Amino acid sequence: MDKLYFLSVMATASKAKKENDKKILTKEEVLHLAHLVRLELTDEEVEKLQVQLSETIDFIDNLNELDTSNVKETSHAVSVQNVTFEDGAAPDRTFTQEEALKNAPKKKNGFFVVSKILNK
User: Does residue 49 sit in helix, strand or coil?
Assistant: First the structure.
């Protein structure tokens, strides 16, 4: 959810209005972001997030001023590798099927239901 949230904020940054050279997200953009991450927001929360997300975008825009031409591309700030269990080890950190599907908006016969994205 965090990656989706970050990408959504960045995607809407270019559409934001400018006020005193600062980008201000519209109420509709905040509601769209909330919909993407499946959050229900009150009017007060929307107003608060308009300010907070706009400040976040302004802060991120500051990074555009840095010279990153000699910085190696990476997807993680720290070394990350897959966690696997040795044969016979108890999988203590796994979800049951019920736990994994608990917050799924659509499910059928114990599986996630997702929209088709490829046409063949």
Answer: helix
Handedness of CA 101, 106, 109, 115 (dihedral sign): negative
Radius of gyration, CA atoms only, the chain: 20
Q: Give 43-52's long-range contacts (Cβ < 8 A, gap of 24+).
A: 49/25, 50/24, 50/25, 50/26
Total-model pTM: 0.46
Tens digits of pLDDT across the chain (120 residues): 455 555 555 555 544 544 456 678 999 999 999 999 999 999 999 999 999 999 998 888 888 888 888 988 887 778 777 666 666 666 676 788 999 999 999 999 999 999 888 776
Place of tokens 């996630």: 112
Which residue in this structure is represented by tokens 């796994």?
Answer: 94
Number of helices (H), then strands (E), belonging to the chain: the values are: 4, 4
The secondary structure of 50-106, three-state, reads HHHHHHHHHHHHHHHHCCCCCCCCCCCCCCCCCCCCCCCCCCCCCCCHHHHHCCCCC
Q: What is the β-pairing status of strands 22-24 and 17-19?
A: antiparallel
